[in-house]
Write a structure and sequence with these properties.
It is a single chain. The protein contains seven helices and no strands. The chain is mainly alpha-helical. It has one domain. The chain is elongated, with a radius of gyration of 20 Å. The mean pLDDT is 82.
Length: 216
């Protein structure tokens, strides 16, 4: 009990110390969301028609009780690859390289852009149906995925900053201690991403089926 309380206090102090960094990342992600939503208005008529046709097929498959029974193992595996390996793993490596730190900001922005574009297009094209589909198929797992990515990005940037200052002799903070905290937070992010993959695999199809009547 004492150890759990001490660990919680340590984590709380860490987030307090890095609050400006987290706020900046949240703002960057929100900016990506905004740009993604605006980008849907820049699509050419052909691109919009292709995406609209694909969206129509998605609605048809859902209302016919198809398309939501994809192999769960495949869905779970793909979610892990996209989020744990390609995103969190990439953020961790970029943080270790130090010079790759600016790319971390790019990853956060792109993830926000993709999410904003997806939701924006759904809502613009089909209004209520798009809002319902976004709420049931995109929102649930992203409630875990987005915070996990932000935590991982902040940890990687924090390590890069500390390592850079140490190399220049501007800081005496231990790089090894910072690496340990970065590794721990990245591990915690992976746990959240695994939970997000489970939600996407097992709960999202249920949510979609429960609201399928609104998609007709």
């Amino acid at each position: 009990m004492f150890m759990a309380g001490a660990l919680g206090e340590l984590i709380w102090r860490y987030f307090q110390r890095h609050l400006p960094l987290y706020l900046a990342l949240i703002l960057l992600f929100a900016t990506g969301l905004g740009f993604g939503a605006v980008a849907t208005q820049k699509l050419s008529p052909v691109q919009r028609a292709d995406l609209a046709n694909y969206l129509t097929d998605v609605y048809a498959s859902i209302t016919q009780n198809k398309g939501v029974h994809s192999p769960k193992g495949e869905v779970f595996y793909q979610s892990l690859v996209d989020n744990v390996v390609k995103t969190t793993g990439l953020l961790f490596v970029l943080g270790l390289t130090v010079i790759g730190a600016p790319l971390i900001l790019g990853v956060v922005f792109v993830r926000g852009f993709v999410l904003g574009f997806t939701v924006g297009f759904l809502v613009q094209e089909t209004m209520v149906r798009g809002l319902v589909l976004s709420t049931t198929s995109i929102l649930p797992h992203n409630l875990l995925v987005v915070p996990a990515i932000l935590v991982s990005a902040a940890a990687a940037l924090s390590f890069s900053t500390t390592a850079f200052k140490t190399l220049l002799g501007l800081s005496k903070e231990g790089v090894y201690a910072q690496f340990a905290s970065t590794a721990f937070l990245s591990f915690c992010s992976c746990i959240l991403l695994i939970l997000g993959a489970l939600v996407e695999t097992y709960l999202t199809p249920i949510f979609i089926q429960l609201t399928s009547g609104f998609l007709i």
